[in-house]
């Protein structure tokens, strides 16, 4: 059960989160560019993400429902007078919730709060996963921009070499036109790649509470293990993920609400006490007490109980559905991780060294007049494509591992 001190701490935490959002936005704007690491992104996403602020605020509202459910009804004070009987009649009617209605209502609110708390954990898992994907996107955009800048420098070298040969009469004029077009295209690709870095940085900013993170840059690589653990061990953790536990908690809360409705069907008691004073027909003051019992005839709780029981059954079905979806997501992500790891290893260990050696050899041969411009351009294009393919394989591998962690409930 949430205590008043706990709710106060939730409100204080909400203010701290809001202050953190303002400070982070100011920090990003004051220090340009700012470097941020993978683990720092995950931490900020869990603490100061606007999505998490909303989830925690909703959780605090539901925590207040526990106190609301425990409120005791106010007594009713009755006073009156008469001309033929008591000159003064005073009474007090007090509702009595002694048949379990109040306790059942409190337990239902506590179950709703537990479900909301698990829901917040599921939201945190989703936010961290989204922030991790955004970090990988920025990481890839930065390195793609660097690769495009290197390709531009290589295109410049080729253009200068071809221009020299054209001036010496060792190559036709058309080769100079082609090399110049290649250089301009490489420059356009480099400019576009550089601009896209700011766009992906801005997308990352929304997950870490920054209003404008266009100048944000990554520090280090995404945290990806060298090899994945056995698939069977990961599959066992699918049923413990926040998304599944959230639906299980929702089912428990619905059953608690059904118990509350059953308790409300019990008779409600009302105790009334009073006195009659200065009654000429009585020798002394008359004290009276009576007990009223509400008869549950017209207000039946059967439909309410049925609704909550069906809500519980629906939540249990959703839990099975979530487990099935996460099971499939894990299989897809795990096999993708294996495939991208194999591709990365081949490109890193054989593909890139071979493309680099071929490009250097072709450049030397062209300088000596032993290779054609077509061969030089093909070697240059192959090197650039291989570098970009390696970067994309590394990013795809990181994204696959993020999906593996999300499916297994890692936060």
Summarize the structure in words.
The model is unreliable at 1-31 (pLDDT under 50). It is elongated, with a radius of gyration of 36 Å. The strands form two sheets. The chain has a four-stranded antiparallel β-sheet, with no helix packed on it. The chain has a two-stranded parallel ribbon with strand order 1-4. The protein contains nine helices and six strands. 70% of the residues lie in helices and 9% in strands. By secondary structure, it is of the alpha+beta class. The longest helix has 67 residues, at 101-167. The protein has a single domain (4-407), classed as Outer membrane efflux proteins (OEP) (Up-down Bundle), CATH 1.20.1600.10. Helix 1 packs antiparallel against helix 3, helix 2 runs parallel beside helix 3 and helix 4 (101-167) runs antiparallel to helix 5 (173-205). The protein starts with a helix and ends with a helix.
